[in-house]
Amino acid sequence: MRREYIRSAPMWRNAGPRFDCVFIVTDPQAEGMCSLDVARVLCFFSFKYQGTLYPCAIVHWFDRVGDGPDAATGMWVVRPGYHTCSHRNIAIVHTDTIYRAAHLIPVYAAHNVSCRDISPHHSYDNFHSFYVNKYADHHAFEIAF
User: Fold this and answer.
1) Nearest by Cα to 21 from 64, 75, 63, 62
2) Where do runs of H (alpha helix) occur along 13-137?
3) Lower CB density within 10 Å: C or N end of the chain?
4) Stretch 87-101: mean pLDDT, rounded?
5) Tens digit of pLDDT for each residue in 51-89?
6) What residues have CB less than 8 Å from 18, skipping those under 6 apart?
């Protein structure tokens, strides 16, 4: 059996924050990416209510761009979700809805990106859209179609 770690840490190895992205099941009846949404995990927490423990995560949703994968790459394109220009689309989800980790690749603009201007822990904040990397491993290839 395979084990996967999904991390959400304000300081990761004294180098900066790490907030991993995940696939979340939002429509169990659909197939592929139509059954999943992508989100960035901001925090894991749990609470107890009437004797039942509820493990949860605070996530920042990504919105799909278009109705299908990008024609040139075969990968879906997503962008961070916002309710308005400055209010992020954030929600609390049960950890049972998290399917697995997602790997996103920035969609680079026509201009050059300077290594001095960007660091790995800020890449989700510095780019406007991302490819959902279905080529990361065979599990991602099977679900991100």
Assistant:
1) 62
2) 123-126
3) N
4) 94
5) 999 999 999 999 999 899 999 999 999 999 998 878 999
6) 7, 8, 9, 12, 121
